[in-house]
Amino acid sequence: MASPGTTPSFSPAQLAGLSLPSSCSKTANDVIAFSNSYTGNAFRQTMIKTWQDEAEAAQAAGCIKGYKILNTAENTATEQIAQIQSLLLTGVKAIDIDSASPTALNGVIEQACSQGITVVVFDSLASTKCEYDLGDDIPVISTEMAQGMAQLMGGQGNMMIVRGLVGTETELPKYQAQLDVLKNYPNIKVVATVTGQSSEAIAESAVAAELPSLPQIDGVLTAGGGDSMGVVAAYQNAHMTVPPVALDNSGQALQFWSQSIPSGYKTVSIGAQPGVASAAFWETLDLLNGAKGIPKLMQAPPIPITPDSISQWEAVTPASNIATYLYTLAETNQLIQANYGGGPLPLPPVPTSAP
Question: What is the pTM of this model?
Answer without folding.
Answer: 0.86
